[in-house]
Each structure stands twice: as structure tokens, then as C-alpha cells.
Design goal:
This is Carboxypeptidase. It comes from [Candida] arabinofermentans NRRL YB-2248. Its EC number is 3.4.16.-. Belongs to the peptidase S10 family. With about 525 residues, the protein is of the alpha/beta class. It has a domain of about 270 residues: Rossmann fold, CATH 3.40.50. It has 21 helices and 17 strands. Strands 1, 2, 3, 4, 5, 8, 9, 10, 11, 14, 15, 16 and 17 form a 13-stranded mixed sheet that branches. Strands 6-7 form a two-stranded antiparallel ribbon. The chain has a two-stranded antiparallel sheet with strand order 12-13.
Length: about 525
């Protein structure tokens, strides 16, 4: 998950404010004070201009000078096989079919692969995907859709940095085989969404909320399973991390709203996600200050811990106002204020994706290996082979991030969609590396225990039990489950569990897709 502090704060304050004027009678005192403070900081006119941009949807979408020429010539060159559905006339799946755009040529894996674009033609939006068949039994193995977070970070991060068939050699910029890839026993789709992420792009429109993004993903899945209809009866799992704690519940709810769907959702997996902001923010203090609860050590001074406690009081009121209204008017101030709670931890210089370390020098997102992924995916031969239709690949897109902040999407509640999924008798796994700070395991455990659904009591009363890996016999973590709703604390892992604990992450996914929801 990105933070506003990952960007230039003065610039963000000028660009992200989505309301320019606030009537004192329309909002709570906390919201009003937050708005007046922002108005004083950036100026009333800047706020009004930003609000007008938000209302008109003119949010500087990702564009490409290559797009026009490629789209004009694609039919002549027959670069793609086109897939459409009568019930979704505005959508199209383009599957690379030209001999020069065969992803097998890149040597990322030897299994059958497919890459291409999913087009929302009326809105001129184009989402890139890359699909890998299972290394085991693709005819019968489950299908996993993997989504990274941000908002605005590419799922190619998951592919090359975490759980895909290969990582990237930083010297030669060539693939390195990953024996712990999640496609060992499942076929995996890596989808770059929302539009504007990675190789995805739009000419004139943008996506500003998880709800709209979910509608696009549902349509993609319909066309994907139409093209690859021999997979439509396989088990289908949606998995992801970080801001996917917003995406996945929204997508699942959207899928369940379509009883005529051509595929069946089997289960969900969310790793170190942001799902219930009201509860998650309450646990930044204990994670940094209470060694008994966190299982690590105190990371900041007692004085700074008291500051966090004080700030959370106001943060809680602001997020509750956001939960009640779910509008940008109340949610954006909550987002901007509550981010300050992470300030004392940030001042330590530690990596908020892994509290045991500091960030690699000279990197934007703390890991040098992520820079290698960016460099590899910007190689001309890689872009050509994948049929990329953008000038440049960017691992995390600032514009997408800002657009989501504009809409107040981040502090909104998404846990209610998890309850909907559970009430539909579908299993859900929430897993969390216990050395992550930004979406820490304490907060994730707390919201799962607070969630109300039909069998919530049996989950709340369940005890933690040891999780011993079937791969190497190591103690991988602790698991709490009622057989349908499962929480897994992953030992010695940060925000990106498959990166820190590749073997244990593979054991986890192998169990889950095999139906071992209790990690027995």
C-alpha cells in the first residue's frame, strides 16, 4: 500500500483535495476543522479547482503516443485474436496471436502462456494481463487471479518480485526460475488494474474508486473464461495483497451480483490488506509500542507512543464520519489526517513494509529488486514480445494513486463485502506477515474478529494453532479458523509474504486451493 508521503506532500495537497468549500452545518466539527486547515495550507482557490477537476473527471489519465498507431494497424497485422460477448457489448478481450508477441519467447516459464489487453471500448480503457498455466495439471488445477495494491501498483510486482514463475537478475535483466511459484499447482492470471497501472492505459478516462475497478475486473473475467472456456468449471480464487484488501472484497461482491456469470468464485485470499481502516489504524500504536502484542520489540519512544494514541482519537472520529457518509467530503480529510499516525514510525527510518530493516538506498519503494522489474519490463524486446501499448512501464503510477485519493476511496469500509462472501458460504483467508507495519497483522486480526456474519461467533471463539509447513516441516506461523474464515499469521514475513517466505507462502496457497481451509 502506498502512502501520501511516498509522493511530494505539497504537490499532493494541491492536487488531491477533492472539495473546495465546506458548509459548517453539513459536516462534523472534526471534518470541518480538517477542511479549514487544508484550505489554509493550500488556498481556497486550489481546493475549488481540484474539486471541479474531480467532479468533471478530468484527472490526467495515463496516455500513450503509441496507442493511436498501434490500434490503427492492429487489424491489418492481425496481432490479436478478439473475444466479445453479446451481454457485454462494450468490452473486448484481445489475445496476442502474432508470432512476434508470444510471451513464451521471454523464457519466464515453459508452460503455456497468454498475454494481451482487455478493452473497455466506450471509455477507451485498456487493461494488460499475463496468464500462466499450471506447471502441474492445468486441465484440472484451480485458476488464481492475482492483484497487487497501491492503489496504482502493477501486478507484475507479484509476478516478478513475489510469487510468479521467475524473478529478475539485476545484472543481466534476465528471468531466474522460481521453484516456489504459485503456478506450481494452479494457473495464475496477473491483471494490471485499475487502468493506468503498468502496461494498462486510457486515452481519455480514468478509474477513481474500487467499486468502478471491480466492474471492469468482473467484465474481464467473463471474457477470459469465455475465451478459455475449458477453465470455466475449475475452482477460481481471487488473491492479492495490500490495497487489494479494497479491490478483492469489491470484486467478489460484484461477481456475486451476477447470477448468470459463466464462472464460479470458489474463495478469496487477502495478504496484509487494508480492508477495515477504522480498526486497522487503531493498531499502528500497539504494533510500534507494545512488544508483547506485536511479538517484536518497541520501535518508538513512550512519548511518541502517547502522540499516536492522541492522534487516533481524532482519526477514529474522522473515519467513522467517512464510514457513515462514504463521500469524498468526509473521507479525504480522514485519509490525510490519519496518515499522520504513521509519522513517528516513519521518523525511525525503518521500512514500513518490514520493521526489521531499512529501505534499500536510492529506491522509491524500498527494494532494489523492484527497480530490476521496472528495468526489465521497459526493455524494448520485452515490450514488443508482450505487445505492450505504452511508451513506458511504471511499477506504481502516481496518477492512479491520486485519483483514488481524490475520491476518498482509501478510508472507506470494505469489510462488509467480506461478510457478504462468507454469508454466501465461500471460504476467505486473511493472511499477514508479522513484520509488516503499514498493514500489520494485529489490525488485520482485529477486524476479522470484529466482523459480523452468520458464523462469526465460531470464528471469534476459535483458538490459534501452530501451522507447520508440509514442504519443509518448519514452523510457518499460527492459524485461527472455523473452517470457513481463516486468519494466518505468517512468521518472519513483511508486507509481501511470498517475497520474504516463498516456501511457506507456497505451502499456504497449496493448502488453500486444495480445500484445506483449516491448515490441518
Amino acid at each position: 500500500m502506498l502512502r501520501i508521503s511516498d509522493l511530494d506532500r505539497p504537490q499532493v495537497l494541491h492536487e488531491l483535495i477533492s472539495k473546495g468549500t465546506v458548509d459548517r452545518n453539513d459536516v462534523t466539527e472534526d471534518v470541518y476543522e480538517s477542511w479549514k486547515a487544508m484550505e489554509s495550507t493550500v488556498g481556497k482557490l486550489a481546493l475549488e479547482n481540484a474539486f471541479n477537476e474531480y467532479l468533471t473527471g478530468q484527472c490526467s489519465p495515463r496516455t500513450s503516443t503509441l496507442v493511436k498507431s498501434i490500434l490503427e494497424t492492429k487489424s491489418k497485422e492481425e496481432k490479436y485474436e478478439s473475444v466479445k460477448m453479446e451481454k457485454l457489448p462494450n468490452y473486448e478481450l484481445r489475445v496476442n496471436s502474432h508470432e512476434s508477441t508470444n510471451p513464451l519467447l521471454l523464457g519466464v516459464d515453459t508452460v503455456a502462456q497468454s498475454a494481451g489487453y482487455f478493452d473497455i471500448n466506450e471509455e477507451d480503457k485498456h487493461l494488460f494481463y499475463w496468464f500462466f498455466e499450471s506447471r502441474n495439471d492445468p486441465k484440472n488445477d484451480p485458476i488464481i487471479l492475482w492483484l497487487n495494491g497501491g492503489p496504482g501498483c502493477s501486478s507484475m510486482t507479484g509476478l516478478f518480485f513475489e510469487l510468479g514463475p521467475s524473478s529478475i537478475n539485476g545484472t543481466s535483466l534476465t528471468p531466474i526460475y522460481n521453484p516456489f511459484s504459485w503456478n506450481n499447482n494452479a494457473s495464475v492470471i496477473f491483471l494490471e488494474q485499475p487502468v493506468g497501472v503498468g502496461y494498462s492505459y486510457a486515452s481519455s478516462s480514468s478509474v477513481t474508486s474500487s467499486k468502478v475497478a471491480a466492474q471492469d475486473v468482473y467484465a474481464f473475467l467473463e471474457l477470459f473464461f469465455t475465451k478459455f472456456n475449458f477453465y470455466s468449471k475449475n475452482n477460481f480464487v481471487i488473491a492479492g495483497e495490500s490495497y487489494a484488501g479494497h479491490y478483492i472484497p469489491s470484486i467478489a461482491s460484484e461477481i456475486l451480483s451476477h447470477p448468470d456469470r459463466s464462472f464460479e468464485l470458489t474463495s478469496l485470499m487477502i495478504g496484509n490488506g487494508l480492508t477495515d481502516s477504522l480498526i486497522q489504524y487503531a493498531w499502528y500504536g500497539p504494533m510500534a509500542c507494545n512488544a508483547t502484542l506485536s511479538g517484536y520489540k518497541q520501535l518508538i519512544s513512550d512519548e511518541e507512543c502517547e502522540k499516536i494514541d492522541t492522534m487516533y482519537g481524532r482519526c477514529k472520529r474522522l473515519i467513522q464520519a467517512c464510514y457513515n457518509s462514504q463521500t469524498a467530503l468526509t473521507c479525504l480529510p480522514a485519509n490525510l489526517y490519519c496518515e499522520r499516525i504513521m509519522g513517528p514510525f516513519e521518523a525511525t527510518g525503518l521500512n514500513y513494509y518490514d520493521i526489521r530493516t531499512t529501505c534499500d538506498a536510492g529506491t522509491d519503494l524500498c527494494y532494489t529488486a523492484l527497480d530490476y522489474v521496472d528495468q526489465y519490463l521497459n526493455l524494448p524486446e520485452v515490450m514488443l514480445t508482450l505487445g505492450a501499448e505504452v511508451d513506458k512501464y511504471t511499477g506504481c503510477d502516481d496518477t492512479v494513486f491520486r485519483n483514488f485519493i481524490f475520491s476518498g476511496d482509501e478510508p472507506k469500509p470494505f469489510q462488509q463485502f467480506i461478510a457478504e462472501v462468507l454469508d454466501a458460504n465461500l471460504p476467505v483467508l486473511i493472511y499477514a506477515g508479522d513484520k509488516d507495519y503499514i498493514c500489520n497483522w494485529l489490525g488485520n486480526l482485529a477486524w476479522t474478529e470484529a466482523l459480523e456474519w452468520k458464523d462469526s461467533l465460531s470464528y471469534q471463539e476459535a483458538d490459534f494453532k501452530p501451522w507447520i509447513s508440509n514442504i519443509d516441516g518448519d514452523s510457518a506461523g499460527l492459524v485461527k479458523t472455523n473452517g470457513q474464515f481463516t486468519f494466518a499469521r505468517v512468521f518472519e514475513a513483511g508486507h509481501m509474504v511470498p517475497y520474504d517466505q516463498p516456501s511457506n507462502a507456497l505451502d499456504m496457497v497449496n493448502r488453500w486451493i486444495a480445500g484445506d481451509y483449516s491448515f490441518a
